[in-house]
Fold:
Amino acid sequence: MTTRRSFLKQSSALALIPLMPVASFEIAAANKVPLDDPAAKALRYVEDATLAKRADKMGVAAADQVCSNCRFYITDDATAAWAPCQLFQNRLVAGPGWCAGWVPKS
Ligand code: SF4
Structure:
């Protein structure tokens, strides 16, 4: 039997469901590494690696270095547009981005 109290609890929980994707998006957006972040500037982080002045590193051609193939890009999905970066305290960086801390995945 549904009591008035349990009905109200269920109703209020259901009312929040349409807001969750928006809230998740806002949280993710808030966790992106801002380009004007001091650490991002120090490491010359960019969201588009083609804009960065890169050099060949550890046997990998400069043009092949992007966040999505960096050791610090933490995701199981190699095609993820954004993922946490260990170098930036697990804030989100762009998959096609780059910074001077790039290291190839082992
Ligand atoms: S450390 Fe790697 S994943 Fe993180 S911003 Fe630099 S290149 Fe991208």
Summary: The first strand starts at residue 82 and ends at 85.
